[in-house]
Amino acid sequence: METTPPHPGPQGADRPGDRGGAEDSGLRGTNQSGMRAQNERLVLTLLRQHGALAKSDIARITGLSAQTVSVIMRSLENDGLLLRGEPQRGRIGQPSIPMSLNPEGAFFFGLKIGRRSADLVLIDFLGRIRAIERRIYRYPTPSAVVDFVREAGPRITASLPKSLQDRIAGLGIAMPFQLWNWVQVIGAPQAEMDQWRHRDIQSELAALTGMPVHVQNDATAACGAELVFGTGERPKDFLYFYFGYFIGGGLVLNGQLYPGRSGNAAGVGPMPVPGPDGQMRRLFSASSAATLATALEKAGQPSDQLWERHDEWQIDPAILSEWMDQAAEGLAWAILSASTLLELEAVLIDGWIPPAIRAEITRRTEAALARLDLSGITPPAIRQGTVGAEARALGAAAIPLAQRYLLDPTAASRDI
C-alpha cells in the first residue's frame, strides 16, 4: 500500500516526551551509534519549533556532542532539507551560522474530504500552501474523491518546477470516519454512502499517486495542524473545536495530540448538551454550520455560501446572532463537561468560518461558560485557533510530514 518515498531523508524514530519547549520538552538526543535517524528528526523538530538555530544552540538543547550535531546538519543540508544563514559575528571565537528549514526541501499533499466539499492542497516544508483546488458536491462518494485527486493532483504537481516535483513525499487524508452513519443528516442515499464501508480509499489513492498515504479523522487532523503550524503561545493541554458542516474536535495532552485507540478521541459532536428547552441534544445540533444552514433555508435564504467561502458570509444579522448564541451555549456546556474530566489549560475554537465570526463565537463562549456553575473547576482559557479555515487540509498534509521528518508524529494514521 505504501511505496518508498521519492526523496531521501530521515526514516524511523522513537517517540520522546512532549512537543513543547526546548530544555524542558524531553527533546534530548543520543550520541549512541545507530540513532542517526532519530537525531535527524530531533534537529528538524527543533528547527520547526524555534526557527533558525546555530549548531551550538542545538548541541546545548539536545545534549548531543558538537561533532554529532555537525554530522547531522551536514547530512540534512546535503539532502536539501536545511538552508545555511549568514554568519553571526560578535561572539568570541568562530562566527555562528544559523541553519533553518528549506521551504523547498520537501512537499506534501493534504486531502480534506468533507460532507459538502473536498480540498486538495500542496504545502512546502514550512507548511505554506503552494497550491489548492476545491470541489463542492452534494455529498461525498469514494468515486468522486478519487476522480478529484486524479484530475487535480497532476495540475497541482505541475505548478512546481520539474526539479522539485520528485520532492513531494506523501499524501495525508483528513476525513470524517464512518460516513455511512450520517446519511439522514446530510441527505445522501444510503446505497452510495455504504460504498465507504467497502472501498479502501487509502489503498486506492496510494496506487493512484505512487506515494505513502495516511488517513486521519478530519477534526483530529485540524488539531494536529494547530500543533505543527500554529502560531503564538501553545498550551500544553487543550481541547480543540473545529466548525465544519458538523462540529468536530481534537485533544492535546502534555503537548501531544491524543488520537485515542481508534483515532476518534475528542469527537465532540455527539456530546450531550442542554438545549434552550432544557432537553438534552447533541452538540452538533447546536454548534455546527449545518444548523445555521437549516435556519437560513427556513427563512428562505440560500445557504450555499457557507460551503463556498469562509472569508465572508452575507447573512441576516438576526439569524447569525441567534446561531452564535446557540453555538456558544453548546460549547460552554461541552467545555464544562470536559473540564470535569481533564485539567485543561485552554480551549481553542477554529473552523470554516469568517475570522470575525470566529472571534465573536469565542467571546460569547467565554461569557456563556462564566454563567455556568463552575464550582470545583478551574475554567480553561477560551481562545481562537490560529490556523484558520484550511486547518483540516493543512492537518492532512502535516500527517506525512510528521511521519517522515518529525519526532513523535502527531498525525499517526488510522484505518477508516
Task: Please provide a written account of the structure.
With 416 residues, the chain is an alpha/beta fold. The chain is 39% helix and 17% strand. It is built from 15 helices and 14 strands. The strands form four sheets. It has a five-stranded mixed sheet, sandwiched between helices. Strand 13, helix 14 (355-371) and strand 14 form a beta-alpha-beta unit. Helix 1 (36-50) packs across helix 3 (66-78), helix 2 crosses helix 3 (66-78) and helix 13 (317-341) crosses helix 14 (355-371). The longest helix has 25 residues, at 317-341. The chain is globular and about 70 Å long. The two termini are 15 Å apart.
- Helices and strands, in order, run as HHHEEEEEHEHHHHEHEEEEEHHHHEHEH
Percentage beta strand:
15-25%
Helix proportion range = 25-40%
Radius of gyration: 22 Å
Major sheet, described briefly? 5 strands, mixed
In angstroms, what separates the terminal alpha carbons?
15 Å
Backbone structural class: alpha/beta
Tally of DSSP helical segments = 15
Counted beta strands: 14
Within the largest sheet, what's the order of strands?
5-4-3-6-7
Give the overall shape, derived from the CA principal axes: globular
Low-confidence stretches: 1-34, 409-416
Mean pLDDT across residues: 87
